[in-house]
Amino acid sequence: DDVRTGVEIEAVVKDAEELVQKVMGKWDSSHDPFHVYRVRSLALSLADEEGLPPESRQIVELAALLHDIDDHKYASTREKRTEPTAEEFLTQHQIDPTLKEAIMNIIHSMGFKEELNSSSKRKFSLEFAVVQDADRLDAIGAIGIGRAFTFGGARNSPMYDPDVQPRVNLTKKEYTSTRTTTINHFHEKLLKLKDMMKSQAGKRRAEGRHKFMLQFLDQFAGEWSGNL
Ligand code: ADP
Ligand code: NI
User: Fold this and answer.
1) Looking at residue 1, what is its pLDDT?
2) Smallest-distance ligand from the CA of 29
3) pTM
4) In whole angstroms, what separates CA 196 from the centre of its chain?
5) In Å, how far from its chain's centre is CA 190?
6) Under CATH, what is the fold of the domain 6-225?
7) What ipTM goes with this model?
8) Is 60 exceeded by the pLDDT of residue 2?
9) Quick one: which of 32, 95, 101, 126 has the fewest CB in 10 Å?
10) CA 97 to chain centre
């Protein structure tokens, strides 16, 4: 039985939600289960807009749900972790190998740093495009601002430091190894995401969120300098 019926998939989705809750329930709120649920609904809505068929929606939904549970940044909480990895979860639920591979390929290609310095335009599926775009849409706009300061706060990063310049042309290694201020993170990553959207639906939604961040940064700078 290589095609899952609606009822079977619903049960897998429910188990995946439980797994997300167990693994990410105590992570700081930049990467909590609500992030995952927002990404899932955004991704499905982009998938509809792009006209993806029902089989693709299954891939999109499971990839979105499982995309962050093995995040290395939260690996320290994994020492005593007993829950399965995304791959183990799919195997345990006897997901068809082709479907499983499609889902794991999406999860493994999601990261921002994977795309740094890779000038080669790689081919990608529309399923991957909508899940990655959804994850990135959740990193920009009002929610993106909230998440950035939450992440920075959880790591005790300064909001802003006038003596620390944003880094340009970051390599993968620099992106993960060096600490930064939260305002610099906007320049090093968040403001770049709009032009990295892969689906048309994602590009459209990124516009307003991007403008809102620019407005926020302007206001922040104005208040910092005492001009506002
Ligand atoms: P990816 O997995 O795509 O590389 P991240 O996990 O680095 O993305 O980012 C996820 C969220 O954490 C985003 O909302 C991002 O803004 C925030 N974040 C990551 N690094 C920083 C940082 N140095 N300062 C503030 N926020 C950060
Ligand atoms: Ni994510």
Assistant:
1) 47
2) 1
3) 0.93
4) 13
5) 12
6) Hypothetical protein af1432 (1.10.3210)
7) 0.93
8) no
9) 101
10) 24
